[in-house]
# Entry
Amino acid sequence: MPAPIRVAVTGAAGQIAYSLLPRIARGDLFGADQPVILQLLEVPVEKPQQALRGVALELDDCAFPLLHGIVCTDSAEVAFADADWCLLVGAKPRGPGMERADLLKDNGKIFIGQGQAIDRVASAACRVVVVGNPCNTNCMIAAAQAKRLPRERFTAMTRLDQNRAATQIAKKAGVPLTAVSDLVIYGNHSPTMFSDFAHARINGRPLPDVITDSAWLQTTLQTTVGKRGAEIIAARGASSAASAANALIDHVRALSTPSSAVHSIAVHSPGHYGFAEGIWASVPVVTTAPGTYAVVPGITHDEFGRGRIKITNDELVGERDLVQDLLR
Ligand code: NAX
# Structure
């Protein structure tokens, strides 16, 4: 049996982690032969620490053969020590009356400390995925702290948006989900994101040849995906958890498995596809080696696509402006 992979998860007593941790422990991330050690971080506050102990007790009771250890801690240095993957899920929720700018600054500070700790103590091969919102900008903040790890190791999750869009498209076209490919989310994980239907395929055919209802593609699809999080909160009284955990599994698996399959992740922008240099924007990627992506080059967007990318880029640039002091 191979040596265990160390997976650090922050926000480990939260609702996404509650769906995520059993799936990692049963082999959903790295396969049925790969043991894992879970290194779980929560804030140094009695209630979440107690809840974290409860999560660890339940993981014990699942008797997962691949789970070779659980570390529960309130120390980032302990959680990230020798970690091969750091899944940064924990963040403060937006409170009543809280401005987006306050959320950006409050949560941004978390990612300074965690970015520094990861850079100091994580494995040399470590990969970091940011889920805690606003995830693109938090990822930029964490990566800005890294001196040892290259910024390409830091990615943020837009896979939930891709999965949401794929399901809407499959339903509209009346095809199984497996028929939908090359569907990519551009930009921010926020309602400004752009679901690029124009370059997607259905059973290998260009999507616009199959779904010809352009009002649905340009408006209904974009709004449904962009506002899906709010729809779930309204229906469930709590934000997406199982689907977010599932998307994180998809993100890490896709990024771990070399393939020509195109998927969406938010990565450092060198100035491609109309995005400003230095922000983290979702773009099409393929996985070239385990944990390593390459941005798919040469996709040309029409006026509608360019307009949508400009909107989401402007929002990301605005977020960066608000956290300038956290990027030094
Ligand atoms: P919960 O509030 O259930 O759990 C968050 C947990 O993080 C809490 O237990 C809290 O104590 C902990 N935490 C806060 N600060 C921490 C820190 N500095 N170190 C370690 N732990 C810390 O939220 P949950 O529903 O699990 O969502 C977690 C984050 O994911 C939120 O920021 C949420 O907005 C974000 N999401 C991102 C998505 C995406 O697609 N990128 C989709 C789902 C989700 O909305």
